[in-house]
Each structure stands twice: as C-alpha cells, then as structure tokens.
Amino acid sequence: MRDLVRARESAAEDQRHKRQLVSAFMLRHGRLYHRTKPWTMRYRRWLQSQSFDHPAHQIALQEMLQAERNATERLDRLTGHIEALVPEWDLAPAVNALQALRGVALISAVTFMAEIRDVRRFETPVKLMAYLGLVPSEYSTGKTTKRGGITRAGNSRVRHKLIEGAWTYRLPARPGVKKLYILQKQSAEVQDIAWKAQARLTARYRKLSQRGKKSTVVTTAIAREMAAFLWVLPAAPCPLDRCGLHAPNGGREVNGNLVDFRLMPGQAHDLRAVADLIEGLCADHLLADRAFDADWLRSALDEQEITPVIPPKSNRRFPASFDKETYKWRHLIENYFGKLKEYRGIAMRSCKTDQSFAAFISLAATIIQLR
C-alpha cells in the first residue's frame, strides 16, 4: 500500500506541474481567466475556446492540455485503486478512525498509516511530532537558547498532509455533511476524540491568529497538535473482544504484547514450534498468516475449542473459511516485531548464543510492555 500511495503522490506532482505549464503559457500570452476557481469544466471550456494567430502556439497549447488530461486520468486511476484496496488492508480500521478527524480524508489517512504503520512505536505524541519534523529547531550555547523554524526532519509526506489538513481549522467548529456520514460509522470514543480535536484546534487557530501570528506559523502549530490526536485515534477503534491476542492464563492482552516465543533455526519452518506454543492455550481465536495453514494445526485448535483465523493457501482444493474482520487485527503481530527490531541487538542478532538472544528478547518485551 505504501508503494501505491507514493505512486499516487508522484502522479499528483506530475499533474501540478502540467497545470502550471498551461497557466504559465496563458499568462505569457496575456490570456487571463477572470474567475476565482481554475481547472473546473468551465475553465477547461475556456481553454479550448482560445485561439492563436500562429499555429505553433495553438499546437503547443493542445499538447499541454492533452498532457494535463493524461496526468489527471492517471491520478484518478491510482486513487480508485487505493479506494478499492483499503477495505482489504489490515490497517483499514485505523484508516476509518482517522477519517473522523477534520482535515483528514481517505488519502491523508492512508498516507499516514502507510508511512507510520504502528503509532505506538512512539512512546508519546511529542516523539511522533519530532519524527514528522513539526517541532521547533533549537540553537543552544551556554545559558542562551534560541528557537527557530521547524526541523523538517523525518517523513515529509505525512508532514505535508498534516499541514494541508490544518488549514481547515480556520473555519468554525462544526462537522460537515460528508464528515457526518463517516462519524456515524465510528464508535462513541472515536466521535468524542474527533469533536474534542475540532473544538480545541479551531479555538487555538483563532487565538493564535488574534495574537498576530502569520498564517503559515499558525497552520504549522495546528498540524503539530493534529499529530497528537492522530497518535490517539488508531488505538481507539479496537474493541476488547476483537483483538484476538490472549495470554496463556486466560487474561486478555489488548496491546498486542508478547505472550510466549520459541527460537527456531533460519532454515526451519515456523510450524515446528507451534505445537508447544498452543499447548494449554486458553483463547477464543488464533490469528496466523497462510504459512500456518495446516490440517493438523486446525484439528488441534478445534480440540482446544479455539477458532483458527488463518487464510487458506492458494493450492488448497477445498479452501477453509475464516473471519476476515477478525484477521484484520493480525497487524498487531507485525507491529510488535517492528517494536522489537527497534533494539539494534535484536535486529542485528548481536548475541552469540541462543540463551543470551532469548534473554535479550525477554528483556525488550518487558520494557515494551511497561511503556
């Protein structure tokens, strides 16, 4: 999904460049469009009605218009692909929750989740703000501290989307007609967070503007606070009875933390360790990818009255059914691997023995759970 989002961003940049060429060409020849909103159907008809004395100018205009149409069609095509694939994405619940926030539409939400993935890898919202380059830079020497513009470090794609969305908070706090349909599909907790964000950020935009701050500075400050609400929202839509990760003692682990693990040789299939891991497991569901689609595993889970949520392999003659909605929460497992690999000793496999490596993983898991 991240590659598709980046391809769409490239297409949008290409469209902006093509439109700029047309606008510059018309301005260079003194042809002015006297309405406020360009690139509507009326504007396109106006462009087609323009005629030039020299045939070279006419051909150049038509070629640029054709290039702009091709870029627009490409952009619409990629946007349609994203809209079609989002419902099947494992992060679809988080994408739907993010759209409850003002200034965050489908493309912005997908871009945020595709680039950030698990927001919980940032311990606090401030660390997410710093990662996005939205915090002020600082020049310190001795007792002197001077703050400058934002650092612009980290992921620029998400930062641009947040700043674009922050402009919407210059308007009064009220949900729009389209946003109402999105809010109706969200939980009460998500709706409360979305309204709290809208009320706070619109008031802050108004307050900063009244203090004489530049509009760009105000918008950047609003985008910085938007990142904090985006840090909270992806965790809100996860009900306790759908996370599907259970501890062996019957306690439910809603944060997707580590319960048990086995170290396996790199050339061995992971199925070899599953029998020990599921022995005595008290759970309602077991989520795994299609690599774990084995008849003996399904039979063992049925004997323990555990529902397997495992997609079937493509070569199965009679594929088994599975709950696709519950399977969407398997991303918590992949997110946890990402948290573990933040520790360089685990990512680089620095330990010389299996015993020390397992101890390092246990220590890192304890630290993650205590966050």
TrEMBL record:
Name of the protein in its database record: Transposase
Coiled-coil parts of chain: none
Domain Transposase IS116/IS110/IS902 C-terminal residues, every copy: 97-179
Pfam families linked: DDE_Tnp_1_2, Transposase_20
Gene source species: Celeribacter baekdonensis
Molecular function GO labels: DNA binding; transposase activity
Domain of life: Bacteria
Start and end residues of each Transposase DDE domain: 287-371
UniProt record, GO biological process: DNA transposition
Phylogenetic placement of the source organism: Bacteria, Pseudomonadati, Pseudomonadota, Alphaproteobacteria, Rhodobacterales
